[in-house]
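Section 3.1 - Work completed
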Amino acid sequence: MTKSRGRPRKNPASPTGRGAEQDVLHAAGDLFVRQGFARTSTRAIAEAAGLQQASVYHWFRSKEEVLLRLVLGTVVPSRRLAERLLAADAPGHVLLWALCFADTRLLLEDPQNLGALYFAPELRGEGFEEFHENRDALERIYGTLLERTSGHPAAPFDAAVVMGLVENVILQRQRRAPRLPDDAAHRIADAALRVAGAPEHVTGPTRDRALELVDGLVEDTGHRPAPSA
């Protein structure tokens, strides 16, 4: 008989149905987003996950490691998809539209809105270098696609502005009454081309080609948010 890893569960049923490690991540994500990292104890995480408190430390060395896993889970899929788009055979404006659309959709489809953790002050401390490296890599790809679209060198601020358009959906989802239309990802991608100085490319053919690219890459890589209980 194969023994399960870790201590016996406090609650025999797994809240996510995907095992103790994912139960910890899911519980922590919910608590961190709703009440903040500093105000969330490992005891509270364990309770929400239906586990003994010691089980949290069986899977993770610290609460900070849990936070790192959560934020990496939001940025790494976008970075990987961006890398695939960067190598695709298509005009810059199509690729920029595709990246903005895909990145926005990933943030919108995350059941817990874990992108809100990007603004946690703890991320400015030590131990989160891997997150910042991935996010910086994503920003550089935005900058490269801006250059391909406009034909001019893109300053880091320009890439940050376009990423800001995308990540604004995180803040909108935190509002008591979010103002997000069903076609938010399309609108943000359109706005990015206008910011890039290419409003003439905000057209049906641009969208169609970009959506074809995104759908093909998502199907190939499975870069969608993990299911949540």
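Second construct:
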Amino acid sequence: MEMKEIEQATERLVRTAERLTPEEIAAPSLLPRWTRGHVLAHVSRSADAVSGVLEAAREGREASMYPSEEAREADIDAGAGRPGPEQAADLRTSSDRFAAAVAAMPQERWGFEVRHRTGRVFSAAELAGMRILELEYHHVDLDAGYTPGHWQEAFVDRELRSMVEHLAGAELPTVEIADVGTIGRGPAGLRADGPRAALLAWLVGRSGPDGLTVTRDGERVGSETLPEPPPLA
């Protein structure tokens, strides 16, 4: 994945933010307890958090994404009420800081281990992939006209395969995901077919299974037979 993909996703989100009225900013998003303004503020502060971790990795030291959960929430709350143009400007400047941090990373430092706020440890090289997820999934979470159907084909193909690999062997009923792989444990059970963006949206909790074609042993069954995938960490 190239930085161009992140830049394009950022610009799409910026355009959405710019046109939101104050009333729309204050309206609920698809995320519990968060307004659209909370989602936009989170995306900006997340970029700053990742930039800080990249700077630390460049210097060979560990750094937390956020000082604390309380500080993270306070920053998001503080930025949530701003009008659309201010949100859009923040998205751009925080994204520029992120791009600068990426450009400044020496090649040998991309293998440096960093720690997510959940405690998961991974290489700094994965941070760019995390950024595109923040942009694309949270753009949908705004509930402002951008849907999984707007996701780019390359993004959908890559992330659908990644999610199926992630959920292979998970504590779920076994489901074959059309032409990609199988999630869950146990003998072959259900098969889910449909647009790849709809399959990904279901697996990452951005939509229900409605609209997917579900079969068991070749016989069509209701989409409600599909399990609910675990929430993203």
